[in-house]
């Protein structure tokens, strides 16, 4: 009887929350190659992201919603081992990137999405990547990270980013859909363009992308006719990226004193697949990401893989 009552409580509470409106969200996302292998610690080795999203009360008639986002992020890069002291063995530079960003996510009534954001921060020792990596290594009992004295030198970072998403196909029973996804980055850290597809396979009927955790559009207020909805789905996102410039590999053109720099690979293939689901006010996600080599002369030329974990909490 106690088990039955508990199950009923979970069902009812989930249903009640799914009928409520939440106009704000806080998020924590962490990337790490430890999430796919405890023996790999190289290349893009860690990312930590904190963000706050909220619905704008002002929007154009063509928009279903306009969501504003503030974000604080740190990214960390190392050679094939973070314990290398010999500069001649650095097949990729040590690099840290710390920045804040402000973004506007425009969700149109025709289910197209257009996102713009601006990032401002720093690459180099002032990004504190060395200190964060040593903290992580202390937690896991790993060897002390060495070689950070040769990291990419300090430089200001300013980047502009856009994303465009357009629906292509949706099954009649709402169990499968497909979208065309495009990214463009331009600035002093990353300049590249990506294009590919994003597809969801639902464990239950999929929700419209105008009100889904798939693209962080699940916020609602009194101006919307939609509510918070329960979701769970598997997704896959292959992308082809053309790279013009990457300061974490080549060093910044604003400061050319970095001791270790490499040439970028002009074309990179990325694929991400994972799951996302809701649980009361929380949204959770886990993804596996693989990308082909991003720079030349890497010791491991078969690409890199890492995992990402996301935790989101809705606020009224």
CATH architecture: Beta Barrel
The H-level CATH homologous superfamily, spelled out, is Outer membrane protein
State the order of secondary-structure elements, H for helix, E for strand: HEEEEEHEEEEHEEE
Alpha plus pi helix count: 3
Quick one: CATH class? Mainly Beta
- Got a strand count? 12
Give the assembly state of these chains: single chain
User: Termini separation (Å)?
Assistant: 34 Å
Largest sheet: 12 strands, antiparallel, barrel
Please supply descriptive tags for the structure shown above.
mainly beta, Lipocalin, disordered N terminus
Structure description:
The protein has about 325 residues and is mainly β. It has helices at about 1-20, 130-140, 245-250, and strands at about 25-30, 45-55, 65-80, 95-110, 115-125, 155-170, 175-185, 190-200, 230-245, 265-280, 280-290, 305-315. The two termini are about 35 Å apart. The protein has a single domain, classed as Outer membrane protein (Lipocalin), CATH 2.40.128.140. The chain contains three helices and twelve strands; from the N terminus they run αβββββαββββαβββ. A twelve-stranded antiparallel β-barrel has the order 1-2-3-4-5-6-7-8-9-10-11-12. Mean pLDDT is about 90; it is low at about 1-15.
